[in-house]
Amino acid sequence: MDSPLIRPARQSELNDLALLEIQAGELFHSVGMSEVADHVPDRQALSRSQQQGLIWVAEEDGKIAGYIVARVLDGNAHIEQVSVAPTHARRGIGRRLIAQLETWGRSNDRPATTLTTFRDVPWNGPYYRTLGYRELAGAEIGRELAAAMQHEASLPGIDASRRCAMIKCNGRPPDLA
Ligand SMILES: CC(C)(COP(=O)(O)OP(=O)(O)OC[C@H]1O[C@@H](n2cnc3c(N)ncnc32)[C@H](O)[C@@H]1OP(=O)(O)O)[C@@H](O)C(=O)NCCC(=O)NCCS
C-alpha cells in the first residue's frame, strides 16, 4: 500500500467527501454522542471551500482516505473539519492532513493554526494535544473564533461546556539582525 498522496480536492469529489465525513463521524456513537454522529455535512459550504482551494484530500491506492478543510479566522489558519475514513484510521493520515494545513498557513504568513473541538473525546482534544496544540483561555479567543464557537453551540448535540478552542503557534524565523 502506497503512502497517501495529499492534494487539493476536486469538485467532482464533494459527494464522496460528504459521505466520508458521515462515516468518520460514526465514531461519536461509541461515546454516546449520537446527535454529533448524525450531523449532516453542509455541501454548499464544502463546495465553496473547494472552489477557494481550501480542501485537501489524502488519496491512497486511488481512493480518498481522508480530507481536511481550512479557513482563516482572526488572521490564523483554522481547521474547519478533518475526517479520516474508519477503514484508514490510526495510520497517521489525520496527522498528515493537519500538517498540510499548517504548512499552507505558514506559507501564507499565518501566525498560528487554530481549531475547535471536544475537550475530552480521545480523538479530539487529547489527539490535538499530541500534535502540539494547547487550549486557548477565554480571553485569548479572537472575535471570529468566538463567533464560530457560538454557531457550533447552536447545533444539535453540541454541549458548549465540553467544547474548547485550541492553537498551535508557528515558530518565528530566527532574528538575523
Ligand atoms: C480525528 C481523526 C481525523 C484522526 O484521524 P486518524 O488518521 O485516525 O489519526 P492519526 O492516525 O493521525 O492519529 C491517531 C491518533 O488519533 C487518536 N485516535 C484516533 N482514533 C481514535 C479512536 N477511535 N479512539 C481513541 N483515539 C483515537 C489517537 O490518539 C491515535 O493514536 P494511537 O492510534 O497511537 O492511539 C479521525 O479520528 C476522525 O475522522 N474522527 C471523526 C471526525 C472528527 O472527530 N474530526 C475532528 C473534529 S475536531
Explain this structure.
With 177 residues, this protein is α+β, with helices and mostly antiparallel strands. It has one domain (5-169): Aminopeptidase (3-Layer(aba) Sandwich), CATH 3.40.630. Helices cover 32% and strands 26% of the residues. The protein contains six helices and seven strands. A seven-stranded mixed sheet has the order 1-2-3-4-5-7-6, sandwiched between helices. Strand 2 (55-60) and strand 3 form a beta hairpin. The chain is globular and about 45 Å long. The structure holds coenzyme A.
In short:
Helices cover 32% and strands 26% of the residues. The chain contains six helices and seven strands; from the N terminus they run βαααβββαβαβαβ.
Number of strands: 7
Mean pLDDT, as a whole number? Answer: 95
Percent strand: 25-35%
The fourth-level CATH homologous superfamily is Gcn5-related N-acetyltransferase (GNAT)
CATH architecture: 3-Layer(aba) Sandwich
Oligomer: single chain
Globular, elongated, flat, extended or rod-shaped: what is the shape?
Answer: globular
Heterogens = coenzyme A
Distance between the termini: 47 Å
CATH topology: Aminopeptidase
Number of helices, where a helix is a run of at least 4 consecutive DSSP H or I residues: 6
Main β-sheet description: 7 strands, mixed
Which structural class matches the secondary elements?
alpha+beta
Q: What is the string of helix and strand elements?
A: EHHHEEEHEHEHE
| Unreliable residue stretches | none
CATH hierarchy, class: Alpha Beta
Protein name: GNAT family N-acetyltransferase
Domain N-acetyltransferase: 4-154
GO molecular function: acyltransferase activity, transferring groups other than amino-acyl groups
InterPro entries: Acyl_CoA_acyltransferase (IPR016181), GNAT_dom (IPR000182)
